[in-house]
Amino acid sequence: SRTHVRLVLKPRARPLHAFRTRVELVSALRDIVKIQQTAVEERGILHRDCSVNNAMIEDDGNGTNGLLIDWEFAGTLPFMSRSLLWQLSEAVGDPATSARSWKVKVATSSLTKPPPLILHHYHDDLESLFYVLVCICIEFRGP
């Protein structure tokens, strides 16, 4: 049998802010919410970096779909949820404040507890997607 190789010269995805119609934008946002929900419910995976650079519209030949790329743990500050920003500020804020907030002296020794984990939830990704929409509405003119 012969192996066929296809060279794709035209990208199939474009940034979310390059939407062609408002219906396409809302539809892509809906798709991205569904993707996030499915990833959490079926695989227990959070995207953790929903931003204007990672939210895309895919042209699949039969129409368009919302798409999320770059599924690694990161975080783009302007799009992070308030809860995550607060947790980060507690963990890396002013050394005196941080020491009081997550280092607890044990009465009989000088041991300290480690800093708390940053807890990231599904609603944090949804809030990030909301900020992506706000950014698009403010910074881009539309179709």
TrEMBL record:
SUPFAM superfamilies: Protein kinase-like (PK-like) (SSF56112). Residues 2-137 form the Fungal-type protein kinase domain. This is Fungal-type protein kinase domain-containing protein. It comes from Suillus fuscotomentosus. The lineage of its organism: Eukaryota, Fungi, Dikarya, Basidiomycota, Agaricomycotina.
